[in-house]
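Problem 12. The chain below contains 129 residues. Write out its predicted structure in C-alpha cell notation.
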Amino acid sequence: MTAEPTPVTDDYIRRGEFNPLWEQMRALDPQFMEAYLRFRDVPHKTGPLPPKFKELVLVAVNAATTHLYAPGVRRHIANALRAGATREEVLETIELVTVMGIHSCNLAIPILCEEYEKFAAGQAPARAG
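Solution.
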C-alpha cells in the first residue's frame, strides 16, 4: 500500500510551521492530519479579516490560559508585527485575554518584548511553533 500525498502537511513542515506536537498524529494517520490542516487553513486564506487581525486573534488563542502555547504566541506575534500590527495592538490583545487569567501575561509579555526587539532591529522573526 502506497502512502497518499500530503501536500498541505508537507508545506507546513517546509515553512517551519508544523507543530512538533502533531508528529504522532501525523505518524498514526497522515490523512487526518492533512484534512485538519486543510480545514485550519480556510480562515487564513479566505474571509474579510485582514491578516493582521487574524494574527492578533491567534496571539490571543495561543496566549489564553486554556492553551498557553509559547511557540504559537511567538510565531503569531512575529507574524502580526510583519503584517503591520503595532506593539501596542499586540499588547492590548494580550491584555484582553487576561480576563481568562493573568497567566496569559506571564507567558506572552516577555515574548512580545523579545519579538518586538527583533522586529525593530530588522532580525528574522520566529518561524517554528
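Discussion. The chain has a mean pLDDT of 91. Students who got a different answer should revisit the alignment rule from Section 12.3.
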